[in-house]
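Q&A FORM
Asked by: J.P.
Topic: structure of G-protein coupled receptors family 1 profile domain-containing protein

PROVIDED:
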Amino acid sequence: MNTTEVNTINYADYTDYPDDASPCSTDTSPVRTIIYQPVLFYLVFTLGLTGNSLVLWVLLKYMKLKTMTDICLLNLALSDLLLVLSLPLWAYQAQGYEFEGHSPCKIMAGVYQVGFYSGILFVTLMSVDRYLAIVHAVSSIRARTLHYGTLASTVIWVASIGASIPQAIFSEVVRDDEGLTCRPHYPEGTVRTWKLFRNTVENVTGLLLCLPIMTFCYVSILTVLQRSRNSKKERAVKLIFIIVGAYVVFWIPYNIVVFLQTLEIFGVGRNCEASQRAFIATCVTETIALVHCCVNPVIYAFVGEKFRKCLGTVLSRYPLFKHFSKDAMVTSKGSEYETSNTHV
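REPLIED BY: S.T.
REPLY: Here is the structure written out as tokens.
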């Protein structure tokens, strides 16, 4: 299948027909209609850069990093920031421009993949941290320290970089009928193996590892909150549903598409029309998933009472934000369920 000028982040290389098969000629005109991508990429870049930079600024300059929650929040913001920094390059290519040389292509693919994996893993680590803070509040005090938070974060970064290395290595500027595009160029005879590796790692991370862990953690938290008489219980329950709902809405559709691509590699429903639909589905679901890096600062930082109070104190120094800072400090007073940065 030919790539188009509107190439997506996960690339249009989903077909894997045998060498002796006739070429799959598909009409790519529907893909050309996806003109929203460059605009959305730039919008996500602007919002994600602003929100996550603000989180990093407040955390590093005005808040003392003492707990695992603080470290998780810091690294999640770094991960999202890393992801959004790759978007101008994707938007550049989506507009039909061509890269000169392989380096920008490799950097674009590698940075995106590292942000992709680390973002999902840090969201999961935040869920585990909240589980320990509420379900095992007393016994987990020694585990939720700066030391263990740093150790867990290091493991996540190493794993994310390791999973991203193949995409960075194999991504090249390849010339086809549509011009020069950035996509994986696997060694001859190993195409199916590397595609299967990529899809499997993404599905295992998103569906088989992170989703079950998050579900277990938040179901356990809900069970504890339901037995509580605390006045802020309802707000905490709503926040849990927002966190889980955001993950399901933004990431599960993309993981389902990746799973269907894996089936196609094995020949299930493999044809030109299916490949074209897979390409368009990936364009849509992957773009939706990118929005998550803009939502994370709102969910994990700005709704947190400790962070919001600190932000209000900082903004109170600027006349333009004095009204906002007063509201933030008033609404953040007192929380029996505060766990360093959020209600849950």
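FOLLOW-UP: Residues 191-226 form the longest helix (36 residues).
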